[in-house]
Design brief:
The complex is a heterodimer of chains A (147) and B (143). Chain A is of the alpha/beta class and 147 residues long. Chain A is built from six helices and seven strands. Chain A has helices at residues 8-19, 22-27, 86-93, 99-104, 115-120, 122-130, and strands at residues 3-4, 36-40, 52-59, 62-70, 80-84, 109-112, 137-138. In chain A, β3 and β4 form a beta hairpin. Chain A is globular. Chain B has five helices and six strands; from the N terminus they run βααββββααβα. In chain B, 36% of the residues lie in helices and 22% in strands. Chain B has a single domain (5-139), classed as Nonspecific Lipid-transfer Protein, Chain A (2-Layer Sandwich), CATH 3.30.1050. The chains are: A alpha/beta (147), B alpha/beta (143). The interface between A and B is medium-sized, with 16 and 22 residues.
Chain lengths: 147, 143
């Protein structure tokens, strides 16, 4: 059975998917620039009354841990924050959009962190986000906010 | 005077203009030597990103750059390619002495091949070679 997005269960499955992604392991090996947060904007009509998201402790091609948090302030510790609305993230998880193209179109936004660094790691950034397509997601389930 | 990086009126409706502005600003912060490069640039470069159906114009003037959605004025140089190659072009290796594209670099060779194959089409580059070389340096994230 799939995990609702976003939810604690989805976060853990995403961490596992990142760590099983050989492309990420290869291209992310030189990454030593700190945590990356992926935030879902507040979308009240979808039951998301405040931003929520995941803070990935990524280092040298490995995801050492993942936090599931509420509010953009809870993601302050991450030097890189990528923000999009709920439906956009669902498109990414379904594999319908390339995350780098989505960034160029302004659909995914790097709201914190140096863009040149992300571009230097364009293949690992793409692989990191694309790991979400490997998560067994229940697209019909309602989001489950962090406890 | 600090070089400026601004968006033209209404340019924010094109997500790529904001991304380009952020890239230039971050590059100037990370590598202050690029400020002199930007100050010396004059002219207009249009980027046509075919798969995203987007056009942006970078107008280099008065020591800075204004980035417009769509064509703005008559471009001196036009680059027509895909979003994939636009990203790759920012990864072209630069040789350290003059900051020019390094023809020995892996990505530089890929980009040269794509240009020869027609995947990247550039018009007006020969007549405005200094502008193109400086833009490559300005947008490069690897040198």
């Amino acid at each position: 059975m799939g995990h609702p997005f976003p939810s604690r269960g989805w976060a853990d499955a995403f961490r596992d998917a990142v760590n099983q992604n050989e492309t990420y392991r290869k291209h992310g090996k030189p990454w030593t620039f700190g945590k990356v947060a992926m935030a879902v904007k507040a979308t009240p009509e979808r039951g998301i009354d405040d931003a929520m998201g995941f803070v990935l402790d990524v280092h040298q091609g490995e995801c050492r841990g993942i936090e599931y948090v509420k509010g953009l302030g809870a993601m302050d510790a991450a030097p890189f924050v990528i923000v999009a609305d709920y439906d956009r993230w669902l498109s990414v998880i379904r594999g319908e959009v390339d995350p780098i193209k989505a960034m160029m179109e302004g659909k995914l936004k790097l709201t914190k962190g140096a863009l040149p660094t992300m571009l230097r790691f364009v293949e690992s950034s793409r692989a990191l986000v694309n790991s979400a397509t490997a998560v067994d997601t229940d697209f019909d389930a309602a989001p489950q906010p962090p406890a | 005077m600090e070089p400026f990086v601004t968006l033209g009126p209404g340019a924010e409706r094109n997500g790529f203009t904001s991304m380009l502005a952020q890239l230039v600003r971050d590059n100037l912060t990370e590598r202050p030597g690029k400020k002199d490069t930007l100050r010396r640039m004059r002219g207009r470069v249009a980027l046509v990103i075919e798969d995203l159906q987007m056009v942006v114009t970078l107008h280099f003037h008065d020591g800075g750059v204004t980035i417009y959605d769509d064509f703005h004025g008559i471009p001196d140089t036009t680059v027509r390619t895909s979003s994939e190659w636009i990203t790759k072009m920012s990864l072209v290796e630069l040789e350290p002495r003059f900051g020019l594209p390094d023809p020995r670099g892996e990505v530089a060779r890929e980009v040269a091949k794509a240009s020869a194959d027609g995947a990247i089409q550039v018009t007006g580059a020969v007549a405005h070679l200094p502008l193109m070389l400086r833009m490559t340096k300005l947008l490069s994230v690897v040198g």
